[in-house]
Amino acid sequence: MQAKITALGTYVPERIIDNHYFENIVETNDEWIVSRTGIRTRHFAAEYEYTSHLCLGAAKNLVEENNVMLDDVDFVIVATVTPDQTMPSVSTQVQDKLGLRHAGAIDISAACAGFSYGLILAQGLIAAGTHRKVLVFGAETLTKFTNYEDRSSCILFGDGAGAMLIEAAPKGNILGAITGSSGDGGKELYMSNMRKQINGQDIITDNKIHQNGRAVFKWAVNTITAQMPILAERSGLSLADFDWFIPHSANLRIIEALCTQTGFPLEKTLESISIYGNTSSASIPLALHRGIREGKVKKGDKIMLIGFGGGLVYAGIGLEWAV
Ligand code: COA
Fold this sequence. Notes:
By secondary structure, the protein is of the alpha+beta class. It has two domains: about 1-170, Thiolase/Chalcone synthase (Peroxisomal Thiolase, Chain A, domain 1), CATH 3.40.47; about 175-320, Peroxisomal Thiolase, Chain A, domain 1 (3-Layer(aba) Sandwich). The protein has ten helices and 15 strands. Strands 1-7-6-4-5 form a five-stranded mixed β-sheet, sandwiched between helices. Strands 8-15-14-13 form a four-stranded mixed β-sheet, sandwiched between helices. Helix 7 crosses helix 8 (about 250-260). Coenzyme A (COA) binds near residues 28, 251, 278, 280 and 309.
């Protein structure tokens, strides 16, 4: 059996925060944020709202929009770096609240590449023949871990969740995959309350997000431009055959740079950064869902999605949209 994506759902918290909000917190302004990042708004989770709640919102939306049943889901994967707590996992909380009595459940940690990794793992479980229906989430409450004293990062993050259903089918729609990591760049983007050093470098242990924006920006552009043709080839296609490219929405300028350097048309990219900010593992499903709602993505379209982020780590898949 092969893995087929059969449904997508998303959720964002109600509260919308515009750029002016940050003008009272740090020295910044709307013009800088829009021109340097492309972000206009983001959503903040309420105090009582955690990552598991966002997952449940995305699952509810998936069920409502796709007319599917989740009862026989046999595995739940939640990609997140902002779990409600370390233990129990978010996936077990979601399994319980959704009443998925026969489902295995794990959380995975691959930052902004987490959703892509989740899809690749789901594909593997189905191809191995051990599972038939896997629910993959990319969900984050980053704003609970944001350092509001750092103007270069606090303006970036937003909260949200995406959910995808992957089922066993005679003919799948995942065409190819790439994965990779550069652990030596771990110190460039981290969140920690435990270790005093990463790769011999002192780190701050306040459990807030710390980022060397320029270093991550350069790594992302260099790495992902090199990986795009490789993923196309593994998908049995050329880059020009893809109808849509969905890179992780970290910064609009990264997406523009990826297109400039590879010649891929910018108008064929989908993004969630402008209205949701950087939502880490949720950014790709949010961008895809936005593209579908806006009538851009059609059944049969070839889509390349690539996540990249803290680790440093990346992963991507090529797929044919079949919903
Ligand atoms: N408002 C106004 N000025 C700001 C600012 C803000 N919010 N944040 C930073 N600045 C200033 C800096 O202090 C610096 O001033 P200086 O030149 O006087 O020292 C100047 O703007 C440029 O700073 P820099 O850090 O070089 O900005 P940048 O153009 O690289 O943008 C990021 C910063 C974080 C937006 C950008 O580097 C980025 O998006 N990086 C990648 C993030 C990413 O991919 N993460 C991985 C996935 S999660």
